[in-house]
Amino acid sequence: MGRTFRLLVCALLASPSLAFAQRFDDVGVRAQGMAGAFVAVADDATAAWWNPAGLATSLSVADLSAEVTEGGGRGIAFGFPSLGLSYYRLKISQIQPSGSIASPASGRQDNGAAGSRLPSGDAGLSQFGMTVGQSIGQRLVVATTVKLVNAQGDTQADLDVGAMASFGALRLGVTVRDVRSPTFGSGSEAFELGRRARAGAAVITPGRGPLERLVFAIDADLNSMRVGERDEQEVTGGVESWWSGRRIGVRGGVGTNTAAGGGSFGALGVTVVPYARVNIDGAVTRGADSARDRWSLGLRLAF
Question: How much is the pTM?
Answer without folding.
Answer: 0.84
